[in-house]
Amino acid sequence: MELVYSIFLLLSAWYDLRTAKIPIWLLVLFGITGALGLLTGAWQEYSGVLAAFLPGIFLLLVTICTGGAAGAGDGCFFIVSACYLGSYGTIALFLCGLFFCGTCSLGMAAWGFIHGINAGKMRLPFLPFIIPAWFWLLFVSTGK
């Protein structure tokens, strides 16, 4: 299932980077695939499946509270991810993605400050930063 999830991640990040939107068909297709895996017991080793949905729910709440400043697609992406990764994987992926995105944002802000550019209005897609986080979790933290 790691290959299926990797395809979902790469396609979602590509669309987020190019159009700032994730197509509904992509979320539905991979969501159904992940949900079928949950229902058939393919991921029985994951405990706390409900906790896996927390990052997605959190992002959707942030979207509502900010009037759409944060993308709803990111929240939906993490809800679908919960079907594939379980609680530890989804939360770790979210936190690693925040670290990578935050580091880049800090670099952009510093660059803007040095060059006299207001970087506060710049938009930065979140899902492309999930790719290095996924590879980190896939290869480094598991020792594969």
How far apart, in Å, are the first and last alpha carbons?
A: 15 Å
Largest sheet: none
- Summarize the helix and strand pattern as letters: HHHHHH
- Rg calculated over all Cα atoms: 16 Å
The number of helical runs is 6
Uncertain segments are none
Structural class: mainly alpha
Shape: globular
Q: Helix amount, in percent?
A: over 70%
**Count of all domains:** 1
Q: What is the averaged pLDDT score? A: 88
Could you tell me the number of beta strands?
Answer: 0
Summary?
The protein is an all-alpha fold. The chain has helices at residues 2-19, 24-39, 49-52, 54-65, 72-115, 130-140. The model has no long low-confidence stretch (mean pLDDT 88).
Protein model, in words:
By secondary structure, the chain is an all-alpha fold. It has one domain (2-140). The chain contains six helices and no strands. The protein is globular, with a radius of gyration of 16 Å. The model has no long low-confidence stretch (mean pLDDT 88).
Task: Describe the SSE topology.
Layout: H1 2-19, H2 24-39, H3 49-52, H4 54-65, H5 72-115, H6 130-140
Helix pairs in contact: 1-5, 2-5, 4-5, 5-6
